[in-house]
Design goal:
The structure holds two protein chains of two kinds.
Chain A (H helix, E strand, L loop, with lengths): L3 E12 L38 H13 L3 E2 L2 E2 L1 E5 L9 E5 L5 E9 L5 E13 L3 E3 L8 E3 L6 E7 L6 H17 L12 E11 L9 E6 L2 H20 L7 E6 L4 E7 L9 E2 L6 E2 L2 H8 L6 H12 L3 H7 L3 H14 L4 H19 L10 H12 L5 H14 L3 H8 L7 H14 L1 H8 L5 H12 L6 H12 L6
Parallel strand pairs in A: 12-13
Antiparallel strand pairs in A: 1-10, 1-11, 2-6, 3-16, 4-5, 4-15, 6-7, 7-10, 8-9, 11-12, 13-14
Helix pairs in contact in A: 1-4, 2-3, 5-6, 7-8, 7-9, 9-10, 12-14, 12-15, 14-15
Chain B lengths: L6 H9 L5 H15 L6 E4 L1 H16 L10 E5 L26 H8 L3 E6 L33 H8 L5 E5 L6 H7 L2 E4 L20 E5 L2 H11 L29 E5 H4 L4 H16 L3 E5 L7 H16 L18 H12 L2 H14 L5 H21 L5 E5 L15 H5 L6 H6 L3 E9 L2 E8 L5 H14 L12
Parallel strand pairs in B: 2-3, 2-4, 7-8, 7-9
Antiparallel strand pairs in B: 1-3, 4-6, 5-6, 5-10, 9-11, 10-11
Helix pairs in contact in B: 2-3, 5-6, 7-16, 10-12, 10-13
Classes of the chains: A alpha+beta, B alpha/beta.
């Protein structure tokens, strides 16, 4: 397997967060009863005509600017013709020869810390199709056209990725970006963000691409990774056993974790693309682009670079903390509270306790049960040594479940750190007195027993003894013996 | 007699309360009842609705309201969607289709207080030049019922000529207003592409289709266009340009008007047809106009160009008629493919199928460049020819058709011969120009048409030139025998 190189390109479909559809006035909200959000235009009734939603164009341009691409001054909608019951007009309005966005790129941070630039061939606007429903219908297929006409931005990458992990990293980065730009809600369960993966393999060193298979409709990062891994293994096995990969469309079955052939190239439709005569070419001028440019937020890479620089964070930490606008904003609010000199502490807490609590309870950061001001309150108590880091975790859990500020919990539970030297000494004396054998061993050179004494003192104080003070005092008290 | 009055005269009597709209409507309904069986000009009669609309118009008139079309009866080509009324487009496919909305043209005319008598017969989906492709049988020419009235708006033309209504709407994709107007001796106006909204007009070839009107005079056409024309946000190809006062423009003298004689139109013209055009030119020079020869070297490409572009667009436009959501559905489909094949196979007639197949072919991979793309280039050259000509002349003049009305059945089995009927009219559609056909005499006791074509949005100039001619002649006042 090691002498094979994997080549992957992704076609990501991001549903644009417009209120109405791309060519009609129907709402795009998810989850309405079937066919209640489809008007005559969406139903493809005789005589109706499409009218382009300007918001969708603005969003596509915004994306183009964010990936440093060429925004086409003139782009053209084309009809992609095929028959399917969920495609009311018998054609999908898409862009073919002249897409609105061309030639951009995106930097992706890989697991090994390297940064890879992935080329983006194009991004074009198109309308989504409806849905066929089979559940609960005996001997019939239902058609729900609520989704028909929903605006999509199809983002087509170059075949620049060399592993399933790279593909996922790229897809995550696009996911981050479209949410930053507020052009897509990124909701993968609802199908707002999904992708097709073009996968091929070739012997390492060979320039010519292998024959590719296209895996359709992957709607989670995990499925993308698993589907590609399965497909790569399938292709390698096929070639090594003397077979040949055929160009085809495949479907990933997540239950069985395998890809299955949907249709081969020979069976593929001839879509008979041609410019849609119902829509004029989209002409975009400089003022329009300039106006969209003013709506660009700080982009993920810019934010990460700023975090790394201003707060002396590692590239990894800065990357994680800028992975979403909300997370970045949360982090910055905490920094404002505790001061930039404690950025590392804030970063550890946001990426650690806070993130795991959010994940555990499946809560968005926007709905976090501990808000930035509350977390700041907790971190201040660590900084001023009212509590130790360890106790702080206990306080955090209580804050999360009870919704109270850190100080209230510290007081109520009596978790204030013991910093009175006399009090700590008293406990140390008691511990030493109770463990003469360990004391003797320690003094005869078993340094490791120092930890035992720390543990005993902490246990006796309920973890509240100031760790630094405890260390100092214990060293003095144990005296003699070890080299500690 | 009421039915020989022009719209302006009728409006005056309605305003002066000399007649009521209900009386006028009853008059035309009784003519229709008596005369239409010999013509088959209607697909659907809406007598009851008409009387209601007439009563409503009378109420408006009684309240002191006036308007050039208030209370005037009309007929809509059955290609325009009419809310609550069957809209068949001349096809079995839509025999059961009751439109759930009004086309913009219908809504505007309704708002102006017109009274709809019914929906006129037409070639199926506007594909034909003789009205013989209608699912509802051929329309007969009132001048000689063994002859065709032309097409595709044959019903509207025949009904206007037979004085079954003061005016009727039509659509013109390759001559479908001007050619039947010529063959039935009425005035037929095809406005500039984009002048009148296409919303609610069932599409045949979207880049060529344009709504217009049949009247018995240019003055009447001006009054109707005034209401039909103007921007509609629901049609992206509708142009947002000011609508001039067309009736006001009718008085302007023609002195100095430069009329171009299209060399390509006169080459090989049948002598009796040529003589009529010569007579018309004599009238025009008498009115102070100047004539000069102009050439459109690429005009001979117009028929083959049209028969690539129009079928290509129609093959896609008609995909929505699939038996799934509306219209004809075959009995007991055994699966999806069967549903598609039989619904379309049984729902469409031979000419429609021929054009869908032609269009599908020219858009197919491997043929697209040779046909569709080449046709687009030819279309551009033809448009440029017209543009160059209009730098030298104000409008161009020529025959509307090569021959007068031909026998029913004479050409229906020879598509190419049939297509050549549109040889003089297609150029204006390809270039998006306004054109008008007015009666200019008779050949073999059948009316012939004089065609005027002008630059984009030159309807006022065109209608004035037609009006001045009609002030100097009485060809437009001739009524077919039995319909006087």
């Amino acid at each position: 397997m090691s002498h094979w190189e994997v080549v992957i390109g992704l076609e990501i479909h991001a549903q644009l967060a417009t209120k109405s559809k791309i060519f009609s006035g129907s709402p795009t909200a998810y989850g309405a009863p079937p066919n209640t959000q489809a008007d005559l235009v969406d139903l493809g009734f005789p005589g109706v005509l499409p009218v382009l939603n300007q918001r969708a164009v603005q969003m596509a341009v915004k994306f183009g600017l964010a990936i440093d691409a060429t925004v086409a001054r003139r782009s053209v909608f084309a009809r992609k013709n095929y028959f399917y019951p969920d495609l009311p007009k018998g054609y999908q309005i898409s862009q073919y020869e002249l897409p609105i966005v061309a030639r951009g790129s995106l930097k992706v941070l890989l697991d090994d810390g390297a940064v890879k630039t992935i080329g983006i061939t194009r991004a074009h606007l198109e309308e989504d199709a409806g849905k066929s429903l089979h559940e609960g219908l005996a001997n019939a297929t239902g058609i729900d056209l609520n989704r028909a006409g929903t605006p999509l931005l199809e983002i087509v990458s170059e075949p620049d990725m060399r592993s399933a992990k790279e593909a996922v990293a790229y897809m995550k980065k696009i996911h981050t970006l479209v949410r930053y730009l507020e052009i897509c809600d990124g909701n993968m369960q609802e199908g707002s963000f999904r992708c097709d993966a073009n996968v091929s393999v070739r012997p390492k060193g060979q320039e010519k691409f292998g024959t590719r298979a296209e895996i359709k409709n992957l709607n989670s990062f995990r499925f993308v990774e698993k589907a590609i891994q399965y497909e790569v293994a399938r292709q390698v096995e096929l070639i090594e056993s003397g077979g040949k990969v055929v160009q085809e469309t495949r479907l990933y079955d997540s239950d069985k974790d395998e890809t299955r052939s949907m249709r081969s190239k020979e069976e593929a439709n001839d879509y008979r693309y041609f410019p849609d005569p119902d829509l004029l070419p989209v002409e975009i001028d400089e003022p329009f682009i300039a106006a969209v440019r003013t709506t660009l937020p700080e982009l993920p890479d810019q934010k990460a670079a700023r975090f790394a620089k201003d707060f002396a964070l590692s590239a990894y930490d800065a990357g994680v903390l800028s992975a979403s606008r909300e997370l970045g904003a949360y982090f910055e609010a905490v920094i404002t509270g505790v001061g930039a000199s404690h950025a590392k502490l804030a970063a550890n807490w946001v990426m650690g306790e806070l993130s795991s609590a959010l994940n555990r309870d499946n809560v968005d950061i926007g709905n976090s049960k501990v808000d930035p001001a509350q977390l700041t309150g907790l971190l201040r108590r660590i900084v001023d040594e009212t509590i130790s880091g360890k106790i702080a975790k206990e306080v955090f859990e209580a804050m999360w479940s009870e919704g109270k500020p850190a100080d209230a919990i510290i007081e109520a539970k009596g978790l204030r750190q013991i910093t009175d030297a006399g009090a700590i000494e008293g406990v140390i004396d008691a511990v030493i007195a109770a463990n003469p054998a360990q004391l003797a061993d320690y003094r005869s050179g078993k340094d490791k027993l120092f930890g035992f004494f720390v543990g005993q003192v902490m246990k006796a104080t309920g973890g509240k003894a100031n760790p630094a003070q405890l260390n100092e005092l214990l060293k003095t008290k144990l005296g003699g013996g070890g080299n500690a | 007699m009421l039915h020989n009055l022009f719209i302006g005269e009728l409006a005056e009597r309605l305003t002066k309360r000399q007649i009521s709209s209900v009386e006028l409507t009853r008059h035309f309904l009784s003519r229709i009842e008596r005369l239409n069986p010999g013509l088959n000009a209607f697909i659907t009669l809406t007598a009851e609705l008409a009387l209601k609309e007439a009563a409503a118009a009378d109420a408006r008139l009684a309240a002191g309201e006036t308007g050039p079309l208030l209370g005037i009866p009309l007929i809509h080509k059955d290609i325009f969607c009419t809310d609550g009324v069957r809209t068949s487009c001349g096809s079995r496919m839509l025999d059961n289709f009751v439109a759930p909305y009004d086309a913009t043209v219908v809504a505007r005319l309704k708002g102006a207080g017109t009274v709809m008598l019914g929906k006129s017969n037409m070639d199926e989906f506007a594909m034909g030049s003789s009205n013989e492709t209608s699912y509802y049988g051929p329309v007969k020419n009132p001048w000689d019922t063994t002859k065709v009235p032309g097409g595709s708006s044959g019903g509207s033309a025949a009904a206007t000529a037979a004085r079954l209504a003061p005016f009727a709407t039509g659509t013109d994709t390759g001559g479908s207003i001007r050619q039947p107007a010529a063959l039935t001796g009425v005035t037929g106006l095809k406005p500039t592409y984009g002048r009148v909204s296409r919303f609610g007009m069932i599409a045949f070839a979207s880049s060529l289709d344009q709504a217009g009107v049949f009247t018995r005079s240019a003055g009447d056409a001006a009054a109707v266009l005034q209401v039909m024309a103007g921007f509609d946000a629901r049609d992206s190809t509708c142009v947002d340009a000011p609508v001039p006062d067309y009736s006001k423009a009718l008085g302007a003298p023609l002195k100095g008007l430069k009329i171009g004689l299209l060399r390509e139109f006169f080459e090989g013209l049948e002598p009796r047809n040529a003589a009529l055009i010569e007579d018309a030119l004599t009238i025009y020079t008498g009115l102070g106009a100047e004539t000069r020869e102009v050439s459109l070297p690429h005009l001979p490409l117009s028929v083959p160009t049209y028969y690539v572009v129009a079928p290509a667009e129609c093959s896609s436009n008609l995909s929505r008629f699939d038996g799934v959501r509306f219209g004809y559905r075959c009995k007991d489909p055994k699966d999806l493919m069967d549903l598609y094949k039989r619904s379309r196979g049984e729902g469409f007639g031979a000419e429609v199928k021929r054009r869908i197949m032609t269009g599908t072919y020219v858009l197919s991979a491997g043929y697209f460049d040779a046909y569709y793309l080449k046709a687009q280039k030819a279309r551009r050259m033809i448009t440029d020819d017209f543009r160059a000509a209009f730098e030298k002349v104000d409008l161009v003049i020529g025959p509307t058709t090569p021959t007068p009305a031909f026998d029913i059945g004479a050409k229906i089995n020879d598509p190419v011969l049939m297509y050549l009927n549109d040889i003089y009219t297609i150029g204006a559609n390809l270039a998006g120009l306004p054109g008008v056909s007015i009666p200019c005499g008779f050949v073999d006791n059948l009316p012939m048409g004089l065609q005027l074509v002008g630059p984009h949005f030159a309807e006022a100039k065109l209608l004035n030139a037609a009006h001045q001619y009609q002030q100097a002649t009485d060809w437009h006042r001739h009524a077919p025998r039995g319909y006087e």
